[in-house]
Each structure stands twice: as structure tokens, then as C-alpha cells.
User: Fold these one by one.
Assistant:
Number 1:
Amino acid sequence: MKIALLLSGGVDSSVALRLLKEAGHDVTAFYIKIWLEDELAYLGNCPWEEDLKYAREVTEQAGVPLEVISLQKEYWDTVVAYTIRELKAGRTPNPDMLCNQQVKFGLFFEKAGKGFDKIASGHYAEVEESGTSSSGGKIFHLKRSPDPVKDQTYFLAYLTQLQLSRIIFPIGMYAKSEIREMAKKFDLPSKDRKDSQGICFLGSIKFSDFVKHHLGTKTGDIIEISSGKKLGEHEGFWYYTIGQRHGIKLSGGPWFVVKKDIEKNIVYVGGEGVIPSRKLFKFSVESVNWNAVELTESRELGVRIRHGGAIYPATIEPEQDGNTVRVRLKEPRYDLAPGQFAVFYDGDYCLGGGVISLMA
């Protein structure tokens, strides 16, 4: 096949490139330029220059052409603007979710991918063809990677059926340890690179620095929710999310963020003793995307509320509007935050997901 590979310069996408090449495919690598040079110039040297350097070395070694494609404006208008908007509203955004759906497998296809049979990336997930739709076409299912730590289906849950039909994940059936071994076997220039962490468009830049640049600081109170006692101060509610434990910087903990007052810029915290009273069994999920088969009746499924987190058993009941579902967990959670994505699973299959809204 003629394949467009999204190459980041990291180990995973580099191994994906070599696997596609060895399988005999006609591969062109693309490095998507999404970093915000003007926005983040104050932080010093561009943290993505090293990524592009490795991408060039990997493609030169493999004898594969590399094209650099700019989606900076499009990225700002979609993913970055969404992130800032959600933070201002006191919600918890997930930029990577929109990056995959709207940029990597959306805008990229429209701008450069139409001449290819498939778009490939180094994600840890699988696409499986199974069954036929009402129109007679194949149905494409998103399936979890066998590596439970690296599985990235949570970040891919917003992909549509059309997008899944165009995608191939060459490393999806392997564990990270196997990918590292392949990188050594291929003697890749990126074989010893550490895994990237954090949000896709920031690279090694701290998310808190990005937030500070756009939203600044605004001193507010940190209040213990049970007693109403002021325990300290913070620099803005937008730096905190419900369920957060680390980075609160208060003595006598552990402390957890349990509530935010957006109008008064107050962050409420509680100790382990208040957690049972803050746990929730039920919540609503809106703007739901079903990537293969739409849910039309109540089902017992698994739900994941963050990447790398556990999958919790729950009853999922669709609302009449077709865009919202009600979720009832078998065991309650205290770390549910509006704006987070809830992603639904049926065994190894990722069915889709949506945005957590009403809590009950």
C-alpha cells in the first residue's frame, strides 16, 4: 500500500516506519509542525528541533522521503483555543483527544493524506475489521494494545468510523519492551530516546508554564471544605483539577482538590477523611462519539476516565438525544471532573467516549 506515516522522531513512530518498509509498503513520512513559535518563544530554544533532527536521521537511514507539513494555525484554532477555553471555564481539558481526531487524523488527511491508501502512526492500539454495516461496508473497530501501560485507545476514542477505516497502527500489537528491542535491531538513531511525556503540542515544556503564559496568575484562597478554614493561597483555579493530589503544596496532607468556585477563585480541598463523602456513583457524558456501533440501549461496559487509569465496570444508558449517556459506576469515584473524557470499553474493544458533564 501507499502509506503516509506520521513521524515524531521518537522510538515508536521510528519502529513503525521500519516495520512498514520491511513489509514492502511505499512509505512517505510526514513531520507535522504544530508548535507555537511565537506563543512559546519566551521559553527559549524550540524543544521540537531535536524531534525533527531525529526524524530526518531515521528517514535518511531507511531511505524514505520526509515532508514537513505546517498545521500551526489550524492547531491553534482547534486544540489550543479549546484548551484555554476549557481552563477558563474551570473544566479539565484533554488536548490530546482533539489533536488525534481533528489534527493528526483529520486536518492532516485533508491537507496531505488523500493520495494515500492508509495513514499510519506509532500509537499503541489496533484497528480490526469485523462485520458489515447496514450499507454493506466493513466495520472498523478500535482495539486495545496488549501492553496495558502503553495502550493509547483512551486518546483515540474520538476517532470516527471513517477515520478508523483510513488508519493503520503498525506497532499496536507489540509491547513497549518489544519495540525497544526492534529499535536496537534496526540500530535506529532514536533507539535510546526517552518516551515523550505531557501534552502533544508542548513537548518537554511544562503544562503549568503554558497555562501561566495564557492565563497568568490570580491569587485566591485554598479552603478546607469541611471546616471552612483557609489553609493557604493559590495562583489561579485554572491550575487545579478535581481529584488532584500532587502540587497542592500544603502541610498536614495528603490533600485532594474536591471543588472549585470559579466566580470567587476559591479552591476547596479535603483530606482522606472527606473522600468517602465526595465519591460519586452517577454522572452524565455528553458529545458522545461511538466509533463503530452506536449504543441504543442500556449496557454493562467498562469506563476509563483518564489515560493509563483503570477501567471501571459501569452501566451505560443512552439518552434520547443520541449525544448523551448516563453512567452508573459499580464502585464510586472521587476524582471525576467536568471536562474530562470518559471512554467506554467492551473487553478489549474501545467503543468511543465523550465529555463528563453533570455530576450526581
Note: The first strand starts at residue 2 and ends at 6.
Number 2:
Amino acid sequence: MNAERIELGTLAPQPWKNGAGLTREIAVAGEAGASGAFDWRISCAEVARDAPFSAFPGVDRCIVLLRGAGLRLRSRDGAIDHRLTTPLAPFRFAGEAALDATVVDGPCDDLNVMTRRGAFTSEVQVHRHAATIDEADAALLLAIDGRWSVGGERAPLAPMHALLWRAPSPPVATRPLDAAAALIAVRLCHDRGS
């Protein structure tokens, strides 16, 4: 299937400049050197304490709570006031928004998907039952709970393990192997306009 297998626990954590958390970059495409201009980026963050979120002009963001009690996200202009406290419920917002994150009850982990507006769009879905993931220009399947059978892969996808397609991915059949299971599917597609 031409997918790269990734164990999130083996990715090197990078501390935030403000010291409030760590980021593990899963994958990035189109990075343009020091400018940090990417087409898309997927990462996991460990948020340890209250902190402002970095602004990413021209970027659409999606955040998903993985573990912990979550965060309250508030924009300084009052347009956004969202409690990210329901695990595995994707929340989308514009990267321009200057957000302050307040931890609800201790550290939490989240998945972040960012796409450069005009270059890529993202679809982030959570599956708990068998599903076929549609083709995409790039894709990530991340097992959160339980083991998952994925397409023609011989070994099941274990919790906090992922399959990454950096190039076009075919439709992929997925099936949980355990009673309590959850899988995040991220599809990244070229933005072909409306």
C-alpha cells in the first residue's frame, strides 16, 4: 500500500518556545526552509499549562483532543470561545486567530492538522466501526484505541501507531479488531477551488 508506519512515541518531542508544552511532528509537506511555509502539517502536542497558541496566517487548522480533560480556546477578539473537552471531536478554526489556551484540569494531548489555504484542504474524521477511507492526495490513519486492520497491511495498527501516505492514497478499508476502538482518518486534498 506504499504507506509509512509511524509509532508516535518514537518521534522526538520539540519543546514550545514558551515552555508550555511539547510538539511531536508526524509529517509535513512543502516546507520552505526557515520561513516555515508548509502545504500541510500534522503533529501531536502535549499541553502542560496555559499558553497562547501561535498564529498561522493563511492556514486552516483542526485540533482533536486525544487524552486529558482538554482546553478552553478563546480568541482575543471574542469571536472564538470553545471548550475542547470532548475527546475525539474535531474543532476547526482559522490559523490567523490569536487564541489563548487554558488547560481545564491538568495536561492534555491533542492532534493538530494544518493546511495552507489555497494549497490543500483537510478532512478529519473519527471512526469506531469498519469504514472505507476515500482516496486522497495524502493521508494519515492514527489508531487511538484498540487495534485496527487496515487494507492489505499484514500487521494490525496498534494504539498510537499511524500509517502515512505522503503521495496519493487509494481507498482503504479499515476494521476494528477490539470492542473498544477509535481511529482518526486525516485526508489531505489539493485545494482545487470552488
Note: The mean pLDDT is 92.
Number 3:
Amino acid sequence: GFIGSNFIRYWLSDNRRGKIVNLDALTYAGNLENLKDITDDPRYDFVKGDIRDRQLVEQVVFDYGVDRIINFAAESHVDRSIEEPGVFWTTNVLGTQVLIEAAKKSWKEKPDDKYDRAYQEGVTFVQVSTDEVYGDLGDEGSFHEDLPLLPNSPYAASKASADLLIRSYHQTFGMPVNITRCSNNYGPYQFLEKLIPLMIQNSLDDKPLPVYGDGQQIRDWLHVKDHCRALCLVLAEGRKGEIYNIGGQNEKTNLDMVRFILKALDKPASLIQHVRDRPGHDRRYAVDTTKIQKELGFSPAYTLEEGLMDTIRWYQSNQKWAKRVASGDYQAYYQRMYGKSK
């Protein structure tokens, strides 16, 4: 997937880091091409499998002697969660439970003693979540880690449920865990259903750019490489049991992002096509990143303009990848969401 493949590249870019195992079901958004140039790296192994497969997950964790887990695996697109909510619950909640239970069995010093809270040294489980679990935000302020969870979509509800599950394993079993909640990611290898790659690709193809409602929904935009750097900090130095918000400190409306892309590609604003807003569409998200800044020293390296231009150039240079991704299942889904393309 998008964030996971970028994280693997970031991890392997530092020779001091150890081996990494990639367990992926290769659903519609998973793509082996994202990592084809590193498949021969001796520090990297790929295992095709589903995190809902308890036997396989336990086998991978035990056979590889896995001591740290980052759970990127999730159905993540809100529109798809409205169409098929059941898939989101099984992957995002049940799959998370399978994964953390395998970790508990492998890492616990006395796995059969429910009262024992001692774990092997250095082990940790990081649950990658989303700012959408907090719900909608007003015109002012930002989400901080202690707020109640008020998810408004089946996707966000499934992620909130997984977060609470991870917290319960820390409270009940003493498991060394962290939860991270990121704002909207963008960057290389993002599947074309997401806003930024969709708008870039449609602009390059001179197709209409479908914008939900009035386009004034506000998001905080985080470059995926900044996200990967923050995750490594949490993995290495995060206080166990703590939640960390990860944001890019770049609040913009969806329409602002679309207009920037059009201008960068010298395409006309007439390509913008406002479509009916989706049900339960949250108006604004913004995360307070004070905690991760103070405790772990994280701040984003990318400005929004730099990050967007970097992303636009990547898609321009990787049209073969984009065209292959844009075939089959994605095209059928696109037709259901936005109607026939001109």
C-alpha cells in the first residue's frame, strides 16, 4: 500500500536499521510494483497474506522472530466504507486483533499467565490510525490526543474501534503499544482514488476533476515521508501506551489543493466539476502536534508547496505506473462514484 511501501523505503534507506518483513494481502490498493526495485535487498522479505488469517500471522511473527510491528494494514477510503462497511470492520478491527494477539503470544515472557505483564526487551506495537476518529472539527482549534472519539463514517468508526482495542491490550495485558493519528497523507505511490493523485492524473489526462460539494472541506496535509520519519521516532522513543498526533501543519481546503494542481500543470479551472457531496462528510480536521514535537522532537520537513510539487513531478514521471493502477477494479469503482468520464 501507499504509506507502508513508503515506510519500507524509508526504513531501508538507513543501513543501521534491521530486517523488515512486509505482510500484505495485495488488495486493490496493494501493488508489488511499489517496491519492485528493492525485492533483492537481503534486509527485506515479502509475505503475501491477510492479517485476518490467524495461523499465517502467528507463523510470520514467530518464524521471523518479529520484535516490532507497525500496523499499516487497513481499508482506508471513506467512500468505499459507505458502499461496503463490512469489509472495513473485518480488516480494520478483527485483523488488528489477530495481529496484536500474535504479538502478545510471541513477546510475553509467560504467555500462559494472564497476570504476568513482562515482555521481551525492545518489543513494541504501533497502530497507525487517523485524525478522522476525532470526528468533525469547528472553524477553530485542533484535535489533541485526549479528546473523545466521535467518528462519523464507517471507516473512521472501524479505526476508532481498533484504537480502543490496542489501548485495552496495554491496559489489561501491559503490552508495549503506541497509537499514532495522522492527518491526510500525500506523496509518491498513492492510489488514484485519493484526492491529490486523482486530481493530478485527471489533470494530466484533461479529464474533469470531481470535487465534492463546494470543495471547502479543510484538511491538514502531511507528506508521507514526514509521516514515515515520525513513525520511526515513535517506534524508537515513544512512551509506551501513549497516543501521538502526526500532522503537517498545512491546513487547506480541497478546492485550494485542486487549484494548486491545475496551476502547476497549466490546466484550466474549467476542468473542475462539483459533484454531490458524500454522506456524513466532515468539514474540517486539524491535529495538535505539540506532544510529538515536545517529546520526540518531530516537525515536518516539507512545506506544502514543496511537497505538492514533488508529488506532481513524481506522477508525471511515473505514468506507466499510474496507467496500470488506473485499470480494472479502480475504473469500475470510479464510474460508481463519479459517473462516466468525458
Note: DSSP finds twelve helices and eleven strands in the chain.
Number 4:
Amino acid sequence: MHALIYDIVEHLEQQGWANLSDFVLGPPQAVPARTVIDQPDWSLYGLDKDAGVAVFVELATGTDLAKSPFVYADQQKLARRVLTVPFAALDSLADMVPAAKQVIFIFSIGRCGSTLIADALNAVPNVWSLSEPDAYSTLIMQQYYSKNRLDFPPKQTIGLIRACTRLLYRPPVANPDGIFAVKLKSQSLFQADLFHQALPEATCVFLYRDALSWSNSVYQMMRKYGWPSVQTGDDRASAWTIFAACEDLSKLRPYLDIDADAVPAELALAPAWACNMEEYSKHLHSGVPFLAMRYNEINAERDRSLQRLFEHCRLPVEYVEKALAAFDHDSQAGTKIARDIQVDRLSKTQLERLGKILARYPEFGDPNLLLADIYSGIAAR
């Protein structure tokens, strides 16, 4: 099967999830699909559902995406050419490349130290850890941005997760005994069951944070990206979709007046946190073998937390001390949400109002909830 290769005329600002619309492209040229295997500088960028193709980008020789806080952003910025392969060819292509000896999936609620953890794992020899490749997030989110609003059926999603994992594992130095760690975007939590079905032998981790400090961190991130502090129609729907991977605003109705002309941005954060806690618990009950780690303890008990993580991931604990160096710098430095960019925080009054909204949630209303995992039983505590 053939692929199409394009010169890049212009890099555009990314909108939504990685796809062809991130570039202005020249005319296509047909090439063998295995070009992305034979030439090691090609990197899987995203899945374009409307076009029915996987999108690869060509990077400079030796580019190590493990050094990137956000893989998708550096791929788009550094891309030299684009190559597209029909979905139908991905399985056969994936079979041409060696699989990692072990896969680690890092799920999270976001704003909870997940980029830091991805960085820490790179301190372990044989581990190649990527932070937020966008091919996976497209599987759940492109339906919200697609012209046809089509979803990937579960069976197709499982196959694409399996193929994408194999095709993404391309460290700069060939390592047949390598371990592949992937920090996923937070929306992938809502498909954790499909990840487990695709790769049942993979190690699964879930990172989270107490509700109030998480809401504060998310609010600051929104402000750094230029989101308004008071949201109206489309902004409100987009925020809910991003943080809860759910287009249906009706879940907000018990907590907010969703028909109001404008709503303070922070008021939707408590329901979004609770929605993620509920989603995690659902997947734990369904058999996804999670280790749950809360940022509060990760930051306060760094050595102990990394040791617990390494033991769960079957990594040698003698590298914990080296991995602790990840705490010494901002893992998102140089991005729009770097720590040194100052924006306003939620006030005490806003946090109190947020807490009252969260308290309406019957099962997940405790902002300091500690989640269960495979080591502590199934029920939340």
C-alpha cells in the first residue's frame, strides 16, 4: 500500500488535536508506506479521522522526543515533511517494527505532576518515556472536532492503540530490551478499558491531586492559555470537553445553571474533578490494574513515592535517587504554562464556592479523597 508525502509550506498554530490541519502542505507524492519504517526520522504525529490516515512527521536526525515536555508541540514545530498512511495499512506497518519489551501507560487528571513523572522515568536505563504523543488523544477527542462528528468504534480503537504504541516506540538508539513509557493526555482516562484490552500486559498508573489545589492549577493554566475568567456558551462547552472528555453538558446541570449567559470559569472545575474520579473508579472496578498516586504525596514524600512507582512498573529501585533530579527543575519550562509565568490564582472565596459545589456530588464530594488501587482494594476510601 502506498503513502503520500508532502513538503510543508507553512506551520500553523495547532487547533485541537494533531492532524493535517496543523500545516499548509504542498502537492503530494506517492511513496511506499514502509518509508516510515525504512527511514528512522519519521515519527507518528496524529490520526486524522476525516481523512482516514495516520499522520507522520519527519524530524531532524537524532531528535529525541523524550526531552520534550509535550511531544505533539515539538513534533509540529520541528516537522520537516509530512507523510500520511491509510488506517488500513497501520497493522502491517506496526508488525515491521520491534515492540518494546514492556509498556507503561501513565493516565492522569492533568496538573498533577504527570510531566514530572514522565521525566523521572527517563532516568532509568532502557526506559524511553514520552509525554503526550497526540495519536492516542485523537482517538477519543477527534469526534468533538470532526466535521462529521464520527467516533472510532471500540474494536477499531483497540487496534489503533496497539498499532500506535508499536509505531511510536522509536527511540534514537535501537534498544531491543527497551521499556516504553507513555504519559497520555488526561482525556485518555476515559478509554482506559480499551487501552487495557489493546495491551493487557501493559503497566497502568493513574496520577491525580486533591480537588482544590487541582482546580487552582487548572485555573492558572487556563489563564496562561488566555481563556476568559468568565465563560459563555462555546468556551464553557470546550472547557468541559477538555477536562472531562465529555461533550454532554447535562452532567453539569446538578451543579451549575448551564443555561446562564455566563458562568465563572472555576465553577465547572469541581464537577470535572469528580467526573474524573468517577471514571477512574469505574475502570478500576472493570479490571484495569491501576496504581493510583496523588501529587500531594508524590511531592511531599518524593523518595518513597518514586520507589513505589518503580516497584509497580518493575523498574530497578536503585535508579530512584537519579530520578529524583526531575524535581529540581520545572518539567514544563519553556512552554506556555511554565511555572515562572505568573497569573492570578483562585481567591479564598472562589475556592470555598468551588468546595460547596463539589460537596453536592454524592460519592466523590470529598476534595481530599484518596483513591483505591490494585494494592488497597477496589472501593474508594
Note: The longest helix spans residues 269-286.
